[in-house]
Give the backbone structure.
Amino acid sequence: MYPPTARTIPQRSRDRMSYDRDAAHAVLDEAYHCALGFTVDGQPRVLPTLHVRIGDTLYLHGSTGSRPLLAARDDGLPVCVTVTLLDGLVYARSQFHHSANYRSVVAHGTAHLVTDEREKTAMLTALVEKVGAGRSADTRPPSRRELAETAVLALPLREVSVRSRTGGVREDEADLHLPPWAGVLPLRLTAGPPQPDAGVTAPLPAYLRTARTPWHEPARCAASTSGWSRWSWRTPTNCTPPPPTTRCGGT
């Protein structure tokens, strides 16, 4: 468990919060990108970037000339990193109770510029492996010049919170008789058909083949001690929907 702090304890909807380490790691690992928030010259900045988790450190990819990387050269850069996975849109009979099912992580701390070449190489290899298991062995590793042109921020995961919503419509009893349709529209990230670059003759790698994977056979089902759980929605496009009673963990 991550210890709650003044910055990670919400003022409202505390029942949606979790500080479970495994649940936080599951969201960070499933998401491909994050939002990096920081302050430069008294002005707020939020940048989208790629990330990968190695152990209890979150690594952020960037350019050596970008503002956050330049600002982190000395004593580090205070940051707030957020990741959100949208799992569904919730349609209620009343406009007020429309909502969304989601899983999100917020991490606070001081990020430092990675200067060790071995650590930077390990991060870039892990990032490549995240988009395709075995990809790092199939492709050319970065040259010394490319490594020098790539900047990496390391954020120790110490002050972390998970926020989520699952389940169906939550209506006022007085609205239950209203005629509009109500329910949940599930959302998921899907991959389209691979599009090879010009001149490519290599066979399609295994991690890009569209194997038939039912929704109810998830790659990961992370449950926290607070009862929060979700399955991974990162599945191929030709999935078989689960039967209505199929669940993964709690609700």
Observations:
- Confidence is low (pLDDT under 50) at residues 211-251.
- Residues 14-189+204-231 form a domain with the Pnp Oxidase; Chain A fold (CATH 2.30.110.10).
- The helical segments are 21-30, 67-71, 117-131, 135-138, 144-149.
- Residues 32 and 50 are 6 Å apart (CA to CA).
